Inactive hydroxysteroid dehydrogenase-like protein 1 (Diaphorina citri), 194 residues
Amino acid sequence: MDVGILVNNVGIAPPHPTFRKFDDISKEHLYNEITVNTGAPSQMTRMLLPHMKQRKRGMIVFVGSIVQVFKSPYFVNYSGTKAFVGHFVNCLTREISHHNIQTQILIPSVVDTNMSKGDHFMRKMHDWLRAFAYPTATTYASWAICTLGWCKFATGYWFFDCTKVFSIMGENLGIMPFVLRQILRFSYGSKVIN
């Protein structure tokens, strides 16, 4: 089997509404999310890695999520599974780098896919802003592919790079929990979070 690039782009998130308390997620969904988000990329990598090692070349790309980097209440299980993917990539990179196999992890924000169709923020945005903030899968892929071979870690889209900078500033200044609470109150009402 001659596969030059493996892209592990798989994931399921909590059912909508997206913002859900951890203990409100069903046991079945919890296990499905863990199995799909961590098991599928691990198994695909395990299946194709021997062939790449034999040829002494290849690239393995993993699609994580921006929520794996920041404290993400109401995405507890999803962000945990994506953090697993990030750590998995870091460990795998050290293990296989001498085989001339490259790895990369992409950490996008929300991309306009079936998984994000119920996103409350996306539905309320003006069309012109949605075009920048929530790229289609095709737009995201065309930007992300430009990062292949250039870096091991990328958001994959220019607007996500901008939001990452502001998120890091907010997280370091301790204002992100406050901002998130205000967004949740505005979007879902004060009963959602105190």
About this structure: The chain has one domain: 5-160. Strands lie at 5-8, 58-63, 101-106, 153-154. The radius of gyration is 18 Å.
